[in-house]
Amino acid sequence: MKKFLALALAMLMVFALVACGSTETTNTEGEGGNEVTKFSNFPTLTYLYNTSDSHKAIGEYLQSALQNVGITMNLDNQEWATFLDTRKEGKYSVARNGWVADYSDPICFLDMWTSISGNNDVQYGKGAHADLKMYNLDLTAFGLDIKVENGTWAETYDVLISQIKACTDETNRYAMMHIAEDMLMETGCIVPLYFYTDLYMISKDVKGFFSNPLGYKYFMNTTLEGKDVLDVCIGSEPDTLDPALNSAVDGATMLAHLFSGLAKWSQDANGNLIIVPDLATELPEGVKNDDGTVTYTYTLKDGLTWSNGDALTAEDFVYSWNRAASAELAADYGYMFELVVGYDKVSAGEEGAKLAVEAVDAKTLKVTIINSAAYWNELLAFPTYFPVHKATVANDAWATEPATYVCNGPYTISAWEHNSVITLTKNDKFHDKDSVTMPTVKCHLSDDSNNMLANFKNGTWQLIDDVPTNEIATLKTSYKDEFVVAGQIGTYYVCWNINENILPADSTLTGVEAEKAKAEIRNALGLLFDRNYIVNDIAQGGQVPASSFVAMGMTNPDGTQFYKTANSTTDAFDGYYDVSEEAFEGNVLKALEVLRKYYK
Q1: How far is CA 177 from CA 130, 182, 397, 404, 438, in A?
Q2: The dihedral formed by the CA atoms of 207, 211, 217 and 219, expressed in degrees to the nearest 10
Q3: Smallest Cα–Cα separation from 234: which of 67, 422, 514?
Q4: Which residue ranges form the domains of the chain, and what is each CATH number?
Q5: pLDDT at residue 36, rounded to an integer
Q6: Are 206 and 220 in contact (CB under 8 A)?
Q7: How far, in Å, CA of 136 to CA of 148, rounded?
Q8: Cβ-contact 447, 465 below 8 angstroms
Q9: What are the residues facing 75 on neighbouring strands?
Q10: Strand blocks (E) in 418-479
């Protein structure tokens, strides 16, 4: 709290230094009687977040930082599922957000913002923004006959992402990804705050546990002396447990225990994370075709079955992948099949369109992708690529109750007390059942970090995925062997609805000029937030202040960090924000200079 007050005072002193010019100065007494510059006609904002002590604390800090310049931002706390729907539907002005890598390639931070993506919460290319012609794209330097001036988001950003995915020259591909991030950050709609770490607590008595950089946690190979039940809490009631529809990290963890795909995450003998075959006998190299496409042929293991005893065949993958990519399902992660030939027609809903995936016979699956991709095997291990049981998913409510849930992974759902606990029981029909050492995993459903910690301390739960922010400093010492801060490739950020009007009521700006002004304003507001205060005094989990959207941990082909080479307009600092502690006051001055152009 002392540091917060000191920072607030520093901000007030900075505001007092700003020449008034045409800006009206409110006579609010600061320290020593200094007058504080505040703007009087900024529209009232509402900050959307979901229940969590840390999310609330960050929201309150952002609220205070804006209030220091006269901007009112109310906080709206919503339950997780409602929060997701509100954000996805664009029924908000500004919201908390976070993105964790789906695989180890920067494109997974960039392709989510195409106009057709279900994860495009900012609403780029949607609503009023769909028809706004103000973006430019010039790819002639890469040998491509593409140059667009004053195009829509779909005509520029969507095209850019498609070209990146079709590019096999790594130098050009990464250069184009930097252009894509430049386009995103120029809008000011994405305000990165910090790069994630994965903070959790696990009992020292649990053996065989591991997690991956995507934040997924794996319990199937654990042991707990004297017990055959592992009690964990990785989140609240899941929004869905349909592999094609899930878009949450905690949901993905659950699905990794309930389903198996062609590949999976595992550990080698030295504990290094690797992608290995799961239902496939091996992960073969692709065969390059004359047209540049690449074909993979997979052989399924013998005797694969669903949890209801039905045989699992190559045709299940054909059906499941086409379903997940279809316009009819409109899955958030449907675009994960963009690499597969035919996706453009399937996602557009063209009659009779199919992905280039074929069941040669019951055990042989052939798939053709548009070009080679280093992360293809990681996609095969991603939940969206898991197969589902065709007859089961015909019932829209199949993934809500144990009685209707058919899966093929290490566990089945034996009980589901909604908003309380989901019980996972070892699946005797799992192809590798002998490797499953924990018979039962109880996934307790809660987003109350105080409740989680209480149950961990009394030994009721052996793993919790969140702790109260105000307890972190103590837990680092008193539970040093059980309090874990692991690496995670992700970014915590604030996102703006691009269709939200933040100009003053009397502004005469319209169309492109209005949009350019809003982008400038949003970028200015991003300078008012002290990221070092957020990570050191609020989050306290070893997070790193974020200067870009693509997270730390994503690398260029030469091994350098992608974020360190972001933003071609400056070499003064890494990324799009100077996040050093000494830069904060200067950032505030720059923000005020912009805001003075538009507000009283």
Answers
A1: 22, 9, 39, 43, 42
A2: -30
A3: 422
A4: 2-94+181-194+488-595 (no CATH), 199-310+364-485 (3.40.190.10)
A5: 54
A6: no
A7: 5
A8: no
A9: 47
A10: 421-426, 440-445, 463-464
Cα angle, residue 157 at apex, residues 155 and 163 outer, rounded to 5°: 95
* Beta carbons within 10 angstroms of residue 78's beta carbon: 17
Q: Is 405 helix (H, G, I), strand (E, B) or coil?
A: coil
Residue type, 116: I
Residue 319 main-chain phi, psi, to 5 deg: -65, -50
Stretch 75-86: mean pLDDT, rounded?
Answer: 94
What whole-number percentage of the chain has pLDDT above 70?
94
- The two beta strands, 263-267 and 273-277, are antiparallel
CA 497 to chain centre: 17
Nearest Cα to 273, choosing from 213, 334, 330? 213
Give the strand pairing for 210-211 and 147-151.
unpaired
**Tokens at 276, concatenated:** 């290995």
Q: What is the average per-residue pLDDT within 433-450?
A: 96
* DSSP of 51-105: S-HHHHHHHHHHHHHHHTTT--EEEEEE-HHHHHHHHHTT--SEEEEEEE-SSSS
DSSP 576-596: SS--SGGGHHHHHHHHHHHHT
Q: In sequence order, what DSSP letters do the residues of 542-579 get, joined into one string? A: S-EE-SSSSPTT-B-TTS-BGGGG--TT-SSSSSSS--
pLDDT of 331 reads 95
Q: Produce one character per residue of 556-578: b if its CB has 16 or more CB atoms within 10 Å, e if not.
A: beeeebbbebbbeeeeeebbbbb
Q: Is the pLDDT of residue 571 over 80?
A: yes
Q: For the residues 179-198, what does the mean pLDDT come to?
A: 97
Amino acid at 540: Q
Is residue 28 within 8 A of residue 35, CB to CB? The reply is yes
Give 72's contacts (C-beta < 8 A, 6+ positions apart).
42, 44, 45, 66
What gap in Å lies between CA 299 and CA 288, rounded to an integer?
Answer: 19
What is d(CA 512, CA 135) in angstroms, rounded to the nearest whole number? 10
Burial label, 374 (beta-carbon count in 10 A; 0-12, 13-18, 19+):
exposed
CA-based angle 384:213:247, to the nearest 5?
A: 30
**Residues found in the chain:** 600
Greatest Cα pair distance, the chain, in angstroms, is 82
Which secondary structure element, helix H or strand E, spans residue 491, and what is its range?
Answer: strand 483-496
What confidence score (pLDDT) does residue 569 get? 83
- Residues sharing a CB contact under 8 Å with residue 331, sequence separation 6 or more, in sequence order: 118, 244, 245, 324, 325, 384
- The span from the CA of 164 to the CA of 85, in Å, is 30
Please report the pLDDT score of residue 327 as a whole number. Answer: 95
Q: Are 211 and 486 in contact (CB under 8 A)?
A: yes
What pTM did the predictor assign?
Answer: 0.87
